[in-house]
Amino acid sequence: MTRLQISKASVAASSGAHSDLIELLVACHARIRSFAQLAVAIAGAPSAVSEAEIIDGCERCTRYFAEALPLHVADEEQSVMPRLLANAPEVASALQTMQAEHHEHEPLLRALLTQLRAVASAPHDLVARAALAAVAVPLQTAFEQHLRGEEDTVFRAIRDRLTVAQRAEIVEELRARRQL
User: What mean pLDDT is predicted for residues 109-114?
Assistant: First the structure.
């Protein structure tokens, strides 16, 4: 198995159905990590990796970062954040940081999408892959710091300060965004 195939397997394994809000958010974070790692792996893929596999990886990353990640951001900012601000004002600073980091990630994500498309159109172009690495590696680092911050503070507040009914309402909103 190549590194790109391993990433595909780990992404598939993290996408199961969950009914608990924290489980859903943890699964989203696992997908963010997996797709960020896949983008880095594409950038550094050995020459033995086929063009088809590189193109497929680029397309999967593009689809995830252009379609699914914005839904996750909306989940946090439109469903989680207002409820935590009302029920756990002590995490207001962490929530503001979360939102600010979402905005800071936007130009990096646009650059990542541009570079993924460039690599998809020329899979073995080393200049395009180096440009992808120049965006994917720092974005992966930024995501990891961001996700850990959310998991340490925001997820704990969700567990400790939101009722079961509030968490269930959020899950319904998440599903409605995805029309599940």
Answer: 98
